[in-house]
Amino acid sequence: MPLPSSARALKKPRLDDEVRFLRSWIEKPLHMGAVMPSGKLLARKMAHYVDVDSDAPVVELGPGTGAITSALIERGVDQKRLVLVEYNPGFCALLRDRYPQAKVVQGDAYRLRDTLWNVLSAPASAVVSGLPLVTKPMLTRLRLIRDAFTALAPGAPFVQFTYAVVPPIPKSLPGVSTEASERIWMNLPPARVWVYRKD
Predict the structure, then answer these.
(1) pLDDT for 85-124, tens place per residue?
(2) What is the spatial distance between Cα 163 and Cα 148, in angstroms, rounded to a whole number?
(3) If 0-12 CB within 10 Å is exposed, 13-18 middle and 19+ buried, where does residue 20 land?
(4) Does this UniProt record's set of keywords contain Phosphoprotein (predicted)?
(5) How, if at all, do strands 192-198 and 176-180 pair?
(6) Which of 3.40.50.1100, 3.30.720.120, 3.40.50.150, 3.90.79.10 is the CATH number of 15-21+35-198?
């Protein structure tokens, strides 16, 4: 039985985003965290760790087409608090159109200190990352989390998802507490959310 036109209209943006993701992944597979945008359950789980009552910025790394961004807003994060760091210029244009009150920064999240040096007006209340960390050397991952902690308020979370079975950043970092969600089996592929806080 065909979908009613209203249901088809609701599904179209998701399908368009999947096509955009797939095209970008084919062009540059190691720059993309996934072949498809994050599923809703995964995006909601990541947004769950962000303090909605704070006025401080929330930095999202690698927002792509905005699956996690939408979950942050649905959770109650004011769009004006969002600082979206995206490498792909096409995705930047899309994000500016979809989230006109957010600050979209076209830049390299793996050089986070340089990318954010004149962007944040206050320490961030969270850094939420959709970056493909496990495709990067460990030194690159460690530099990223070091730079993220520099941008974060004390005790604020660095939230990262991964499809891998091992943590994207070692659990044994000195002075850093680590928390992991249950595996989200309904996401394709299944994923887990890791949260790191500097003690």
Answers:
(1) 999 999 999 999 999 999 999 999 999 999 999 999 999 9
(2) 21
(3) middle
(4) no
(5) antiparallel
(6) 3.40.50.150
